[in-house]
């Protein structure tokens, strides 16, 4: 496929192995990837923006992914994509519920800019039930999150959840 810049956006509070799996698979298709970390004042976050970006960078380093950039954005995703000169937005689909929501978002984004395409990738089946909220719930009640988040971030997540008990 030709060299195309792709945005993989999300809140990543925290970044999961499901997200990492998506980045690994997107990087098999595209050379130029930007992970867009949303500054979302409406969502109460467990981790600050800087912490989320650092945890993603650490996870990429641990997984030996050297060519992916991590940036934050606020406002419209399509404006961020334009600022980055990206022409593709990549989204993971876990369930049919995701698909309904993502389709609506893709249509809205296409309405805003027809030059930017959204592509959907089915998540790997072993990560299809994971969300950042589920990880926070499991961790909060002392459950094992080791198979759900990058190893390099486990301690930081467990400690933050403990502080928030
Ligand atoms: N593996 C594991 N978890 C995944 C996942 C995967 N592959 N894909 C998604 N998730 C989880 C996320 O962690 C998140 O969990 P949470 O709700 O428990 O926090 C949940 O699924 C939803 O993820 P997502 O749809 O990526 O939501 P988000 O809030 O992380 O990011 C944006 C959504 C950033 C793409 C979207 O809000 C956006 O574009 N905002 C900007 C405003 C805009 O332009 N809107 C559209 C035009 S109107």
Features:
about 160 residues, alpha/beta, globular, binds coenzyme A
Brief account:
The protein is of the alpha/beta class and 165 residues long.
Description of the molecule:
This protein is an alpha/beta fold and 165 residues long. It has 6 helices and 5 strands. It is 42% helix and 19% strand. Strands 3-2-1-4-5 form a 5-stranded parallel beta sheet, with helices on both faces. The structure holds coenzyme A (COA). The site of coenzyme A has 22 residues, from strand 1, helix 1, helix 3, helix 4 and helix 5.
- End-to-end Cα distance, whole Å, is 47 Å
Helix content: 40-55%
Overall strand count: 5
Strand order of the largest sheet: 3-2-1-4-5
Q: Mean of the pLDDT scores?
A: 95
Small molecules (ligands, ions, cofactors) in the structure: coenzyme A
Query: Total number of helical segments?
Result: 6
Kindly estimate the percentage of residues that lie in beta strands according to DSSP. Answer: 15-25%
Shape, principal axes of CA atoms: globular
Structural class: alpha/beta
H/E element string? EHEHEHEHEHH
Poorly predicted tracts of residues:
none
Main β-sheet description: 5 strands, parallel
Q: What is the subunit organization of this protein? A: single chain
Radius of gyration over alpha carbons?
Answer: 16 Å
């Amino acid at each position: 496929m030709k060299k195309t810049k792709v945005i993989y956006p999300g809140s990543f509070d925290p970044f999961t192995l499901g997200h990492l799996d998506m980045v690994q698979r997107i990087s098999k298709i595209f050379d130029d990837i930007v992970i867009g970390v949303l500054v979302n004042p409406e969502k109460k976050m467990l981790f600050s923006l800087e912490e989320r970006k650092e945890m993603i960078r650490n996870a990429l380093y641990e997984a030996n992914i050297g060519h992916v950039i991590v940036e934050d954005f606020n406002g419209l995703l399509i404006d961020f994509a334009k600022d980055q000169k990206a022409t593709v937005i990549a989204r993971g689909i876990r369930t049919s519920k995701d698909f309904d929501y993502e389709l609506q978002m893709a249509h809205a984004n296409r309405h805003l800019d027809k030059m930017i395409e959204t592509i959907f990738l089915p998540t790997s089946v072993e990560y299809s039930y994971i969300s950042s909220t589920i990880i926070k719930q499991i961790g909060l009640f002392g459950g094992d999150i080791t198979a759900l988040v990058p190893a390099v971030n486990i301690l930081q997540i467990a400690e933050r959840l403990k502080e928030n008990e």
